[in-house]
Amino acid sequence: MKPFFTLEAVDPETGARAGRLHTDHGEVLTPVFMPVGTQAAVKTLTAEQLEALDAQIILANTYHLYLRPGAARVEAAGGVHGLAAWRRALLSDSGGYQFYSLRELSTVSEEGVGFRSHLDGSKHFLSPEAVIDIEAALGADIVMPLDECLPYPSEPAAAAAAAARTARWARRCRDQRGPVFRHHAHRQFLFGIVQGASYEVLRRESVAAIAELDLPGYAIGGLAVGEPKSQLLDLTGLCTSLLPADRPRYLMGVGFPEDLLRCVALGVDMFDCVMPTRNARKGTLFTRAGRLVVKNAAYAGDAAPPDPGCLCPCCRRYSRAYLRHLIQAGEPTGMTLATLHNLYFYLDLMRAARSAILDGRYGAWLRAFFTDYAMATD
Amino acid sequence: MKPFFTLEAVDPETGARAGRLHTDHGEVLTPVFMPVGTQAAVKTLTAEQLEALDAQIILANTYHLYLRPGAARVEAAGGVHGLAAWRRALLSDSGGYQFYSLRELSTVSEEGVGFRSHLDGSKHFLSPEAVIDIEAALGADIVMPLDECLPYPSEPAAAAAAAARTARWARRCRDQRGPVFRHHAHRQFLFGIVQGASYEVLRRESVAAIAELDLPGYAIGGLAVGEPKSQLLDLTGLCTSLLPADRPRYLMGVGFPEDLLRCVALGVDMFDCVMPTRNARKGTLFTRAGRLVVKNAAYAGDAAPPDPGCLCPCCRRYSRAYLRHLIQAGEPTGMTLATLHNLYFYLDLMRAARSAILDGRYGAWLRAFFTDYAMATD
After folding, report:
1. Which one of A336, A339, A344 makes the best mutation probe of the B interface by having the most chain B beta carbons within 10 Å?
2. Which of A35, A135, A243, B261 could be bridged to A143 by S-S, CB 3.0 to 4.6 A?
3. How is chain A split into domains, by residue range?
4. What is the DSSP string of B77-105?
5. Residue B309, exposed/middle/buried by CB under 10 A (0-12, 13-18, 19+)?
6. At what angle do helices A257-265 and A362-372 cross, to 10 degrees?
7. Host H or E run for residue A6
8. Are B30 and B20 in contact (CB under 8 A)?
């Protein structure tokens, strides 16, 4: 059988990688950005629109789908693929991040996480094993184990305990159904998640403990939670230097376009973030010149497309003036058009990065990108 | 030059008509349903999606666009066609209906309408002539004159005064730029609007006064404001029997699918209504079996498409269970999919009606439709 991951090229100057994930719902060319479809839909878009953008993999969230419509409903519909009529690859987040962001509603113990639903206040308890069973029902091609993510900053002792627990939970998740399992008609691949907060020594220990589980891929979690940008980059680089080269690396929840490109140079293969979709709905577009707050009055008479020269479905047809009007007027169509642009921008950035890596010129390509691009401040 | 309207067939049994409107933004095959794009967008859809549904004409609203983004902005963008990158036909409603539905904010006098903006409370005054100038700036292919619409029920004296004023305003609108004018690079056709509330005698007088203006088309206004369904049908039939056969007839703001089909049988050619789009966003779908409240819990496990056999972009791919989940979860994608279905249903109903009329079998087709269709109660 074909291995799950093929490493195709490593850029000689930077160490950036190009590869392929082989899932039973198609190949995913890396580096890749994965649009976030929390509730089994990428907000404002249809599956046809995601296909037209050539999104090869999207995310769904275990916590949200467990609460609504419920794992049994999703399972009966044929998993998220069946429910949402999504035919390409899918990754399910475990809910670990939701227990962090909704931590006033949850209590972590060695057994698992007790929490109240943010929807109706109902009480629930999920063990690492139960999370894997739910994710088996959801049927994503890539499955994340339950982890414990801490806020920034965290005390060393708390960070060490959470990282060690994350490793024990990862082993329990693996032991529940194995590193690769089949609940619907296709294979599901379990990843491990590295934690360790902002501490190098904990990150080293976490990589060692997680890598020992010999999983199909590894994620770097617990970053982009408020730490300085330099620390995000340093810790990401540390983790990728320690993780096995023959497995894909997924940096969770990052981030701005410039962050993705720098982390690609550090050897990251996979990314997800709500940034392009959430910003789109508020009227902020990512362009090759930097961020464009298209809802600003300055664009009310601007006939140019949001990003001149961009080939996305939004820029090929519509003007800044129209987007500004729609966002200003609260028209849902404005959110859709801005989401189409932002996701195209992220996806195309990864396609261009991959092409540069395959040509062995990622460093030069990256420097050229930063010549035009006005970065967000940290 | 080709006439604006070609009457192609009249059904021998019912009097239903098939025809074509020849605009400089393409032909419109009648009978036709016109999706409502109040603020220069059909809510939740892109222009590409409307084109895929084969919508040949959409509506925009003068009152809303005058307030936001403003007539000068729209004019500078090349009219609504330029602003919204809409290449097909367009009709602009005059705002008369908004002055009716927001009547606590407006004061009607012979000179025109004074009103406060529903957005910021600012004071405005629009004469019939000013409305035409704004509509010239908006650039719709079909232009509605300022009219006075009354609530149901209305006293005979008030209804007579409003109908007479509507006729005087229609003349002032025609005299401002003529029945056909050109402000952008294409022709704009002015319609007249028949009023007269629920009084037959007033409707007769109104038709006579408006038809005398020799306009490219005529609308029936002031209905679907709360009167009994039988009255809607009787008054519509009265108006169409009196209006000239060689001009298109547009019944404003109607309605349920069954209303459209009965009014087609009465000789109406054009319809608009927010019903399919507004209901979609709330999770109610129109199907060949009647209305489907897809947000109901009964559909949470239903793998069937909303309307089995329907060829719309929603029914070809997605299930009732998915739509129910999306609407329940407040996902914008659910509103988009439901809107795609409902508009397809309305547009396709008119296409099927047209085909039956051209074949001289509209009566039989209509009876077959009602065999399957569970009607809404009045």
Report:
1. A336
2. A135
3. 5-273, 274-378
4. TTHHHHHHT--SEEEEE-SHHHHHHTGGG
5. exposed
6. 160
7. strand A5-10
8. yes
ω into residue B82 within 30 of 0, thus cis? no
The residue assigned the tokens 């139960």 is: A130
Distance CA B239, CA B230 (A): 14
Q: What is the mean pLDDT of chain A?
A: 97
Q: How many CB atoms lie within 10 A of CB B29?
A: 18
Query: What is the pLDDT averaged over residues B113-140?
Result: 97
Q: Does the pLDDT of residue B276 top 90, yes or no? A: yes
Please give the pLDDT value at position B145.
98
pLDDT tens digit sequence for B279-289: 999 999 999 99
Which residues make Cβ contacts (< 8 Å) with residue B285, sequence separation at least 6?
Answer: B279, B291, B292, B293, B294, B306, B307, B323, B338, B341, B342, B345
Q: Could you tell me which residues are beta bridge partners of residue B7?
A: B19
Beta-ladder partners of A61: A93
Judge: domain B5-273, CATH 3.20.20.105.
yes
Burial of B111 (0-12, 13-18, 19+ CB in 10 A): exposed
CA A130 to chain centre: 22
B378 and chain A: CB distance < 8 Å anywhere? no
First to last CA, chain B: 44
For residue A307, give every residue at least 6 positions away whose Cβ sits within 8 Å of its Cβ, in sequence order, or none: A285, A287, A288, A289, A292, A315, A341, A345
At position A164, the amino acid (one-letter code) is A
Answer whether the bond into residue A153 is a cis peptide, omega within 30°. yes
Please identify among residues 24-83 of chain A the ones whose CB lies closer than 8 Å to any CB of chain B: 39-48, 64, 68-69, 73, 76-77, 83
Confirm if A152 and A225 have CB atoms less than 8 A apart: yes
pLDDT tens per residue, range A95-119: 889 998 989 999 999 999 999 999 9
A93 belongs to the catalytic site = yes
B300 touches chain A (CB under 8 A): yes
Distance CA(B275)–CA(B279), nearest Å, equals 6
Do A162 and A150 meet the contact criterion of CB atoms below 8 Å apart?
Answer: yes
Distance CA B173, CA B161 (A): 18
Region of B148 (left: φ > 0; alpha: ψ -120 to 50; beta: rest) is beta
CA dist B236 and B279 (Å) reads 24
B182 DSSP 8-state letter: E
**Other CB atoms closer than 10 Å to residue A309's CB: what's the count?**
8
Contact A326 B46 (CB under 8 A): no
pLDDT of residue B378: 45
